[in-house]
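It is worth pausing here to work through a concrete case rather than discussing structure prediction in the abstract. The textbook approach is simple: state the sequence, then state the predicted structure, then interpret. We follow exactly that order.
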Amino acid sequence: MARERLKAEWGDPQLVRDTSYFLNECSCLIAGDFAGVAAYSLRDRPIAELVSINAFHRHSGVGTALLNYLVELLRPEYEQLRLATTNDNLDALRFYQRRGFRLSALRLGAVDRARIKKASIPVEGDFGIPLHDEIDLVLPLGSSPA
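Step two, the predicted structure:
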């Protein structure tokens, strides 16, 4: 059910760093009574990839709770939690940086390349910002996210 909800929101696969992450190959966390879902991949050990996170009730702490739980789950065996967002996603950039994530890479034109494989990716993103680039953020798992 969680994967189906994420597929409805974002499609499948998720394309990040020219890599396809199929939701049926990801592990999922569900917050409360389906208040939020996080999908993550462990295939790049010792780096874990946060593929998707959705809080269906914004500004209620659901995203933070999912993230904190994931970090505690990963901490014993993984060195880093990585994620990618797009150049238009100012809310995500603020959210993750406030929780200890650091900017680690900018891939110019990555979304344009992904759009060739997945035509459903829009040309215009949040706030009317043209959607072109991916931004990686990382959290070393030796520190607390919140």
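Step three, interpretation. Residues 2-140 form a domain with the Aminopeptidase fold (CATH 3.40.630.30). The CA atoms of residues 1 and 9 lie 13 Å apart.
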